[in-house]
Design brief:
The chain is α+β, with helices and mostly antiparallel strands and about 120 residues long. It has one domain. It contains four helices and eight strands, in the order E-E-E-E-E-E-H-E-H-E-H-H. It is globular and about 55 Å long. About 15% of the residues are buried. The structure holds zinc ion (ZN).
């Protein structure tokens, strides 16, 4: 029932599956607040949400893709984002966490990059 959502970096063509969004429980009663499955932990074969694993995966994804165009979209949009033979590659949450290194962001440089890449042509 229903389709899942994913966090996609449009610039890098990488995605993180976030599962389905829920607004009511199994008996049909509306939940207090809308929620989602979270991020999948393939090692322990379970979803994580609102916990440390979830936080670390989202944090690492955001830091690794800072200053990039990130979208939270239903499955299928990734196929629309794909260009030519460049598909959107799904990433595993544990890989994203493991890939998180100590980086030294330069916000001023990133601001310049953004201006350069998004300036209207004259
Ligand atoms: Zn990116």
């Amino acid at each position: 029932m229903g389709i899942g959502y994913e966090l996609v970096c449009v610039d890098c063509k990488r995605s993180l599956e976030m599962g389905k969004i829920y607004w009511r429980d199994e008996s049909g009663t509306p939940l207090e607040s809308t929620t989602l499955d979270g991020v999948f932990d393939r090692v322990n074969m379970r979803w994580h949400k609102r916990d440390d694993f979830f936080g670390r995966a989202i944090e690492a994804f955001l830091i690794q893709h800072r200053n990039h165009e990130i979208r939270f979209v239903p499955e299928g949009v990734d196929e629309l984002i794909a260009t030519g033979n460049e598909i959107v590659e799904p990433l595993e949450a544990d890989e994203i966490i493991a890939a998180q290194k100590n980086v030294f962001p330069d916000p001023a440089q990133e601001l310049k990059e953004w201006e350069r890449n998004h300036r209207e042509p004259k």
